[in-house]
Structure formats: structure tokens, C-alpha cells
Amino acid sequence: MAITVNGADVALPDDPRVSLLDHLRETLHLSGTKKGCDQGACGACTVLAGGQRILSCLALAVQYDGQQITTIEGIGTATDLHPLQQAFVEHDGFQCGYCTPGQICSAVAMVEEARAGMPSHVSDDLLADHFALSHDELRERMSGNLCRCGAHNGIIAAIRATYADEAQTQDPLAVETAA
């Protein structure tokens, strides 16, 4: 049994009770994914499984046999930041930085969810093909990721700035730029 983590095939733990979070951090030494509450309430452990955001503290590693897992280490590097990582820096989207990896992983998947027509609690038209990432949509869609330092305004600004440029290239994802 194996999974692919950030493009590399890795063995699954022998013990089927090991969470994906613990496997990433303790076995694979990928410390970017953080253990916050260990109960699925804070989002610090968010990673991508097949492009979808999951809470790795609530997932058993063996559940993802044969699947692609992307952690913050697979999104960008110190010398080649993902545009969203750069925007977090430019818009003060972090203070202590503990929640930042989960916030970024969540935001990357959240944009794809909006493009795919997945509504949120505040979406007006549940049958739309895609959803504009208004201020309220962004706040609702990112509500599962908590920042105890209070950097939420910078986080939302970073997401808006990153995907506003994309909207200008006629992408079907319309990002509102007004606050």
C-alpha cells in the first residue's frame, strides 16, 4: 500500500490507526501541516487529497491508499512561491504563521470548488455553474480555517488579490474587487 505525497510515492504506515496528519509529520517529516485541535475544528491540518481539501487529523492514512496528497510543501517552495503564498506575504495574511499552511491549502481547493459550481451557505443561486468569490463567499468558504491571531482580513485580501488577476484574464471565476 502506498500514497503519493507531493509527487513522491511513499509507503503507508503498518498500523492502520495512524492518522494522515501523524503520518505526514512523524513518519515523512513534513512539518508544514500543523496539528492544531486534533479534532477537526480548526483547519490547521488541511491538506489536499486528489485536489480536495481534507482535515488530515480526522483521516486515517490507509484511507488514502493509491491517492495523491498535496501538503503546503507541495504547493510552493521558499524559492518558488505559489502566487497565493506571495499574496499572504504582501497582504499580511499571517502573524504567527501556524494556521497559514492550512489556510493556503484550503484556499487553493476552495477556488476550485467555486469554479466547479459547489455552492456555499451564502450562495444565492444553488444551481450556478460557478460562484463569484465575493467578500461574504470567501469568508464563508474559509470559515473552517481559524486564525487565532486575527489575520483573517489579510487572508481574505490575499485570496482576493491572487484570484482577481485571474478574473481579468476572462476566467469563468469572477472575483469581486470591491470590499
Question: Quick recap of the structure?
Answer:
With 179 residues, the chain is an alpha+beta fold. The protein has 2 domains: 2-75, Ubiquitin-like (UB roll) (Roll); 83-167, DNA polymerase, domain 1 (Orthogonal Bundle).
List keywords for this structure.
oxidoreductase activity, acting on the aldehyde or oxo group of donors, 6 helices, 2 domains, alpha+beta, 179 residues, Ubiquitin-like (UB roll)
CATH level-1 class of the largest domain: Mainly Alpha
- Overall average pLDDT: 90
Instruction: Quote the CATH topology of the largest domain.
Output: DNA polymerase, domain 1
The CATH architecture assignment of the largest domain turns out to be Orthogonal Bundle
The main β sheet shows up as: 5 strands, mixed
| Strand arrangement, major sheet | 2-1-5-3-4
Shape descriptor: globular
CA-CA gap between termini: 48 Å
**How much helicity do the residues have?**
25-40%
What structural class do the secondary elements suggest? alpha+beta
The SSE string, one letter per element, is: EEHEEEHHHHH
What is the total domain count? Answer: 2
Q: Write down the Rg.
A: 16 Å
